[in-house]
Amino acid sequence: MRGALRRLFGGRARRRWVHLILGGALAMPYVLVGSVIVGPLTGVDDVFGSLPLQLASFALGLPLAAVTSLFPLTRPLESAAVRALCGVDGDDALAHGPARTRAERARTALWFTLHLGFGGIVAGMSLAVPPFAVVLMVLPLFAGLRHSPLDLPDVLDHGWTSALSPLAGLAVLLALAGCAAGCGALLARWAPALLGPTPQDRLAAAEARAADLAVRNRLARELHDSVGHALSAVTLQASAARRLLGTDPEFVREALAAIEETTRRTVGELDAVLGVLRDGDAPGTAPAPTLATDLDGLLRRTRAAGQPVSATVGTDPAALPPLVSREAYRIVQEGLSNALKHAGTPVAVRIAADDGHLEITVENALGTARSPRPGGGHGLRGVADRVRLLGGTARAGPSADTWCLSVRLPLTAPATTAEASARPLPRGTA
Q1: Can you name the residues that pair with 403 across neighbouring β-strands?
Q2: Alpha-carbon span 115 to 25, nearest angstrom
C-alpha cells in the first residue's frame, strides 16, 4: 500500500506531474490556433463551451506543435526539462545539442507532440477533476448542492448516493493521480529513445573520450619518466654530496654540476609537456630526448648520483628511427631510475640491434632494497604501454641473483591511432 501511494504521490511522481502540466501550458497556444480553425468550420462562436470542439481544437493544434518543434533549441530545452523533472538517470542518456539529422528531428517532433498531448490531457484533468471530487466528498454535508447549477450527474439526485459520493470523490482523485503517474512514467521511458543520442553520437563521444584518455596517459607517462627520474637522481646526488662534503670535494662539485644539469634539462622537458595542457598555447619548444641526443648525458647524470653504471651500445643511436629512439630512451631512463630508487647496486645497460629489432637490457644485482616511495609503482606500467604501442615485447623481474628489464622493439614501429589502456607490466611477456 505504501509503495503504491509513493508511486502515485511521491516526489518523483509529483515532479513528473509538473512536467506534464508544463506540457499542457505549452499546448495552450496551439489549442487556441486550432480553435480559430474549428470555430468557422463548425459555425460555433464559443468553441470552448463544447468538449468535443475543445478536443477537435486540441487535435488540430498538435500537428502545428510538431512543426514548431523543428526549432533547434527544442531538443536541448526538452532534454533539460526531462533531466530535472522526469528522473531519467545518466548524463549520456539524453542529448545535449540540437537535432542535426532528419531522423533526430523526427524523433524530437514525436517527443514534443507526445509531451504536449499527454500534458494537455493531464493538465485539463487537473483543472476539472479536483473541484468535482471535492463536491462529491462534501455532498452529504450540503444536500443543496444536488440542485445547484453545477450540472451534476442525475444519479446524485438519489438519497442513497449521499453515503457513496465521498468514496466516489476519493476514487476520482486517485484515478487522476494514477493517470498522471502513468503518463509521466511513459514519457520517462520513451525519453532516452526519442531525445537520446544516436549510435553515431555515442560512437563520436566514445572516440573523443578515448582520444582524451590517450593524451592524458601519454602526458602522465612523460611526466613520470622525465620529472620522476630527475627528482630521484637529484635526491640521490644531493644525498651523496652531503655524505662526502668534507672528504671528497671533487665528487661534491661533480654532483652539484649534475644536479644543475638535470634540473635545467627537466625544466625544459616539463615546459614541453605542460605546453600541451595550456589551452590556446603552442607546445613547448624543448625536443623530447632520444638515445641519439642524450644517452651519454643520462648515463653521466646517473653516475654522478653515485650509481655505478656500465653501458654497452652495439648500434649507432643516430641510425635508429626517431620514434623508436625516443621510446627506447624513456625505457632506459626508467630502468636506471628503478635501480637508483630500489637497488643501489651496479647497473649494466646493453643496447643492440638484431634481426630488425632493438634489444634493450637493464640489469642490476638484487642488493638491499631501498624503502619504496609512497604512491610509486607506475614506471613498469609505462614501459609496458610504450612497448605495446610499438608492437614489441618486454620482461621484467628477478632472474637468478639479478633484476632484469629486457625489452625488444621492432625498428619499424606500427602506426597506431589510439593509446592502449594502461595495465601493469607482468612478470612474463608484456
Answers
A1: 364, 398
A2: 11
What pTM, to 2 d.p., does this model score? Answer: 0.53
Compute the radius of gyration of the chain from its Cα atoms: 38
The domain boundary, picked from 197, 220, 247, lies at 197
64, 92, 208, 234 from 32: Cα distances, Å: 11, 36, 46, 79
80 and 135 in a common domain:
yes
* Residue 138 and residue 245 share a domain: no
β partners of residue 364? 347, 403
Output the domain CATH number for residue 340: 3.30.565.10
In a domain, 425, yes or no: no
Could you tell me if residue 423 is inside a domain? no
pLDDT tens track for 103-146: 889 999 999 999 999 999 999 999 989 988 888 788 777 665 55
Residues 176, 165, 155: CA angle, nearest 5 degrees: 105
CB-hemisphere CA count at 13 Å for 312?
11
**351: alpha, beta or left? (left if phi > 0; alpha if psi -120 to 50):** beta
102: exposed, middle or buried (Cβ count in 10 Å: 0-12, 13-18, 19+) = exposed
**Measuring CA to CA, how many Å separate 88 from each of 17, 55, 68, 78, 275?**
14, 31, 25, 12, 40
Domain that holds residue 16: 2-197
Following CA atoms 82, 88, 91, 94 in sequence, which dihedral angle do they give, to the nearest 10 degrees?
Answer: -50
Q: Give the H or E element holding residue 195.
A: helix 161-195
3-state secondary structure of 412: coil
> Grid coordinates representing 380?
613498469
356-400 pLDDT tens trace: 899 999 998 876 544 444 444 567 787 888 888 888 999 988 877
Alpha helices in 101-157 (DSSP H): 102-138
- Does 6 map to a domain? yes
